[in-house]
């Protein structure tokens, strides 16, 4: 078994140095991202009052814009947002998590939505997070559990019936868009067979066995649609990674030593083939948080994706800015994580 | 060494896990201490549900809006979805019923000149609240709440989306606990704009005391769960997602049939229709902008019914009374005090023949389905304002149209199939916004007009440009650089504001940066005189007659050719009784009377 690389944060240690450097570069990266997001959204045409009925007069629209703080110049708005987002919001989160009060929290302005005036954007995001994590996360787990074994078997039995069928289904999986499979499932399982509900009930609290079953029933279709799509991609990736490793010398050596096939596959080929797959999975995790916009919309799962699309439609710029920034943050962090995990799994990678 | 490495890894993993938990925790318990009460209530509900299961099931009404509510009520968020989410719990002094009649809600009766509620000089109106009204927390409703609502919405920094309702009001004052007098800036023949309809319900002066002006932006709890007087009260408001209401024990009227109302948002119109008409998961689905054929198929499943709400919207063709020819440069479609008339559309028999050639029934049935009725008027409702002298247009008459043109000497003299007027071939351009229904309508009209020897060039512009009002764009409906154009507008419940668009003064031109509402650029002295009279005539038969006359002048001069009276389509389960869909007020206006 290969030794794991040394992993302490001392400055003498190359990995430690690498990590410190990477973490430090995150800060300017995020500031740059926040500026770009803020600037692009602020300068883009679009007006939160445009979603209002046409009967509302221009003077009244102007009053509404003013009440939302749209009249301020750009640097003021950006500075205010930075302060609200990086200072006030974390403080509010800590207060809420530990039920304490830090300083004058009443007068501390939080980032509030334009569409739902007075409602802090963070509260809206946190309200949506559980649904997204449950539905999209579960789909991801289901996809991994199905895709990896399918990919492995497809590779070691290349061109067998199993491989052919698997390849065919995967091809269908990632070439048919989720809105189509979603619609098909609704028509089949909700309208015709009436097995699953087509409306996701966000207020369902799991208190007993029945409500748990209810939760499973209402998640079944979105999870299946998303899982199918993800599994198709992952299975293809696992298969090709396995195929890269099968003809390697070390595999032949292990087989020549007389190990059983199962042992060679699991201990040698799979271990090495999974390195890029794990990276792919790690890089895909931010996508779980960003939700699956279309799938959430179709099944009325009120997760982050649905929140973002609604905010875009209403020109609710503070909400769009905050949600987009959080996604950017997650992508940066998980990229770093993927790099680190890659190094841990593959001893050939050295950080220097 | 290795053990230590792994433990460092673990630390990172644990940190990550903690970050997630921290993020997810507050979400599980909404808003700290309130979470306690909400949980407590939820537990109570479950207990009730368990008990109820033995006797009878909890009665839940599920309403689907494919646009989710951002806030309940019309003041801070102007969408119909928000107004309707509010209308389940907030009440105005009076409502409009689906026929456009005003019916009392919190008021004892509708003030009028006869009962002394409206002053003879039309300068003030006095409302009286019902006795013993209570907010949903049990506190008293007083005249101060009405005054406060006015101050709240008219405060400039509140950014109130409904301030339109309070235009022209000089003062609102509480005479005593139950009496409110509204005084106007000038004589107001129609004094019922404020506090009538879901657009201006009463809010609590105690609850919102600290939320006036700029502070409205910070009142999270007040904005999402206002106290109401209606049949239900808000239990839980999840922004842009779902609202849960329970029966309001302090409601002044009959207690509601349903124990709980769930107002669920999100998704799309077609799937909302499906959830009611095909799976029966929801009781009511709002604003189903779905192809008529698909909707008919869904209705055929037999679970529910499609219903339409009509207000005053009319899809119409506007006939340019000025010359839009491109050779005129800056003078295109300029009125110039009548010096630039259209070369042939101002000759009435031509637009009359064009109107006769249209099969309005076909358009409304095929293209609008449940959401349209053929109409010959620009004021299609309320019923007492509708003229019946133009109804002849409901029958298509291509032969009659051809005969009319022949009689008036508009003939095809060169044999190319296109008629000429004063040597000018009848070739017209016809613009509208890009929209599949509008493009199909254009195609139908073009085909009919070809049969009477008129050639039409069809043009469409993206809606954001066409309705955008950019004075630098040549493609806006205000500039009207074509012979015809088509879109929808409609009157509010009192048509005066709408009729004011068509006086001569309102003609858009360079000098007013195309700001007027008289888009057809038709000017008729008789119309202006009658309109002046209307602004001084109180509600009653005389006013009704005037509105009809104004409508007739506009239609019979062929300034506008009305096509379809447009409504909004919703659907409800067959088992849901008491739905009386309303185009003038919120569709939720009588939700307290719904039952199974």
What's the SSE blueprint?
The complex is a heterodimer of chains A (352) and B (596).
Chain A: H1 14-43, H2 58-67, H3 74-98, H4 121-156, H5 161-175, H6 178-192, H7 209-245, H8 249-256, H9 261-290, H10 293-299, H11 304-313, H12 317-345
Chain B: H1 2-28, H2 33-54, E1 60-65, H3 80-87, E2 94-96, E3 102-104, E4 124-128, H4 143-154, E5 169-176, E6 179-184, H5 220-224, E7 232-238, E8 242-247, E9 260-265, H6 269-277, E10 284-285, H7 292-299, E11 304-319, H8 349-356, H9 360-368, E12 372-374, H10 398-407, E13 420-421, E14 424-425, E15 427-433, H11 436-451, E16 455-461, H12 463-466, E17 484-489, H13 496-499, H14 525-534, H15 541-556, E18 560-573
Parallel strand pairs in B: 1-9, 1-10, 15-16, 15-17
Antiparallel strand pairs in B: 2-3, 4-6, 5-6, 7-8, 8-9, 10-18, 11-17, 11-18, 12-18, 13-14
Helix pairs in contact in B: 8-10, 14-15
So what's the oligomer here?
A: heterodimer
Largest interface between protein chains, with number of residues from each side: A-B, 65 and 69 residues
The rounded Rg of chain A comes to 25 Å
Helix-strand category of chain B? alpha+beta
Distance between termini of chain A?
23 Å
Mean pLDDT of chain B: 88
Uncertain runs of chain A: 1-9
Question: How helical, in percent, are the residues of chain B?
Answer: 25-40%
Q: Using DSSP, what is the number of strands of chain A?
A: 0
The proportion of strand residues of chain B reads 15-25%
Summarize the main sheet of chain A: none
List the secondary-structure elements of chain A in sequence, H or E.
HHHHHHHHHHHH
| Number of E-type strands of chain B | 18
Biggest sheet details of chain B: 11 strands, mixed
Strand content of chain A: under 5%
How much is the average pLDDT of chain A? Answer: 83
Uncertain regions of chain B: pLDDT < 50 for 5+ in a row? 1-9, 18-55
Q: Radius of gyration of chain B over alpha carbons?
A: 28 Å
* Class inferred from helices and paired strands of chain A: mainly alpha
Number of helices of chain B: 15
């Amino acid at each position: 078994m290969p030794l794991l690389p040394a992993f302490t944060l001392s400055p003498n240690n190359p990995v430690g140095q690498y990590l410190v450097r990477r973490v430090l570069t995150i800060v300017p990266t995020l500031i740059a991202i926040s500026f770009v997001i803020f600037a692009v959204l602020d300068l883009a045409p679009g007006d939160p009052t445009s979603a209002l009925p046409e009967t509302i007069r221009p003077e009244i629209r102007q009053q509404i814009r003013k009440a939302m703080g749209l009249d301020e110049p750009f640097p003021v708005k950006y500075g205010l947002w930075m302060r609200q987002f990086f200072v006030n919001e974390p403080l509010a989160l800590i207060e809420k998590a530990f039920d304490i009060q830090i300083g004058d929290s009443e007068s501390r302005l939080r980032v509030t939505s334009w569409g739902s005036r007075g409602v802090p954007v963070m509260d809206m995001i946190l309200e949506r997070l559980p649904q997204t994590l449950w539905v999209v996360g579960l789909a991801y787990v289901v996809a991994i559990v199905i895709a990896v074994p399918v990919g492995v078997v497809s590779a070691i039995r290349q061109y067998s019936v199993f491989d052919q069928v698997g390849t065919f289904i995967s091809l269908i999986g990632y070439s048919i868009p989720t809105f189509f499979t979603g619609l098909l499932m609704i028509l089949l399982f909700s309208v015709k067979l009436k097995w699953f509900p087509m409306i996701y009930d966000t207020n369902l609290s799991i208190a007993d066995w029945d409500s748990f079953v209810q939760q499973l029933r209402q998640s079944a279709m979105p999870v299946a649609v998303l899982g199918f799509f993800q599994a198709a991609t992952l299975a293809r990736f696992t298969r090709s990674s396995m195929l890269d490793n099968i003809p390697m010398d070390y595999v032949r050596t292990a087989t020549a030593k007389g190990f059983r096939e199962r042992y060679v596959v699991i201990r040698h080929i799979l271990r090495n083939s999974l390195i890029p797959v794990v990276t792919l999975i790690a890089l895909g995790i931010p996508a779980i948080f960003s939700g699956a916009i279309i799938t959430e919309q179709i099944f009325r799962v009120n997760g982050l994706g649905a929140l973002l699309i609604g905010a875009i439609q209403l020109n609710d710029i503070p909400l769009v800015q905050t949600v987009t920034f959080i996604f950017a943050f997650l992508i940066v962090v998980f990229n770093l994580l993927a790099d680190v995990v890659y190094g841990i799994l593959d001893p050939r990678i050295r950080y220097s | 060494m290795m053990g230590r490495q792994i433990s460092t890894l673990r630390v990172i993993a644990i940190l990550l896990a903690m970050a997630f938990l921290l993020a997810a925790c507050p979400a599980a318990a909404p808003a700290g201490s309130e979470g306690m009460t909400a949980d407590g209530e939820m537990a109570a509900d479950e207990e009730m549900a368990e008990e109820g299961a033995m006797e009878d099931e909890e009665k839940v009404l599920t309403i689907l809006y494919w646009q989710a509510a951002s806030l309940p009520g019309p003041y801070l968020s102007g969408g119909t979805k928000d107004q309707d989410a509010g209308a389940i719990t907030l009440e105005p002094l009076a409502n409009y019923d689906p026929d456009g009649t005003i019916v009392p809600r919190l008021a004892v009766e509708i003030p009028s000149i006869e009962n002394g509620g409206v002053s003879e000089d039309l300068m003030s109106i006095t409302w009286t609240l019902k006795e013993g009204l209570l907010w949903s927390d049990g506190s008293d409703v007083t005249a101060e709440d009405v005054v406060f609502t006015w101050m709240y919405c008219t405060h400039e920094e509140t950014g109130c989306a409904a301030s339109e309702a309070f235009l022209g009001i000089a003062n609102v004052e509480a005479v005593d606990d139950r009496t409110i007098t509204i005084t106007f800036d000038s004589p107001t023949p129609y004094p019922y704009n404020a506090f009538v309809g879901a657009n201006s319900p009463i809010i609590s002066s105690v609850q919102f005391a600290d939320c006036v002006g700029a502070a409205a932006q910070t009142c999270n709890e007040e904005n999402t769960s206002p106290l109401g007087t209606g049949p239900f009260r808000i239990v839980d408001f999840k922004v842009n997602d779902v609202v849960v209401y329970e029966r309001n024990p302090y409601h002044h009227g009959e207690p509601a049939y349903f124990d709980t109302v769930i107002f669920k948002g999100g998704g799309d119109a077609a799937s909302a229709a499906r959830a009611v008409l095909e799976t029966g998961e929801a009781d009511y689905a709002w604003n189903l902008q779905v192809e008529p054929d698909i909707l008919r198929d869904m209705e055929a499943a037999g679970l529910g019914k499609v219903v339409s709400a009509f207000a005053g919207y009319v899809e119409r063709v506007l006939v340019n009374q000025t010359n839009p020819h491109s050779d005129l440069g800056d003078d295109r479609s300029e009125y110039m005090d009548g010096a630039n008339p259209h070369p042939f559309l101002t000759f009435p028999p031509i637009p009359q023949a064009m109107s006769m050639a249209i099969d309005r029934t076909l358009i409304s049935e095929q293209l609008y389905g449940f959401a349209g009725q053929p109409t010959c008027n620009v004021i299609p409702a309320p019923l007492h304002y509708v003229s019946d002298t133009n109804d002849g247009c409901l029958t298509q008459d291509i032969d009659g149209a051809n005969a009319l043109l022949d009689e008036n000497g508009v003939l095809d003299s060169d044999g190319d199939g296109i008629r000429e007027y004063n040597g000018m071939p009848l070739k017209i351009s016809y613009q509208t916004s890009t929209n599949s229904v509008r493009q199909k309508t254009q195609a139908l009209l073009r085909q009919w007009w070809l049969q009477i020897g008129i050639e039409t060039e069809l043009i469409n512009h993206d809606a954001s440009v066409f309705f955008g009002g950019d004075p630098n764009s040549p493609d806006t409906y205000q500039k009207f650089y074509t012979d015809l154009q088509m879109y929808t507008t409609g009157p509010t419940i009192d048509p005066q504001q709408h009729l004011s668009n068509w006086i001569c003064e309102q003609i858009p031109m360079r000098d007013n940066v195309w700001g007027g509402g008289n888009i057809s650029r038709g000017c008729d002295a008789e119309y202006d005189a009658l309109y002046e009279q209307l602004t001084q005539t109180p509600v009653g038969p005389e006013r009704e007659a005037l509105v009809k006359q104004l409508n007739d002048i506009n239609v019979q001069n062929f300034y506008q050719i009305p096509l379809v009276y447009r409504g909004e389509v919703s659907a409800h389960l067959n088992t849901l009784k008491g739905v009386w869909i309303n185009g003038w007020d919120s569709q939720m206006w009588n939700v307290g009377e719904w039952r199974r």
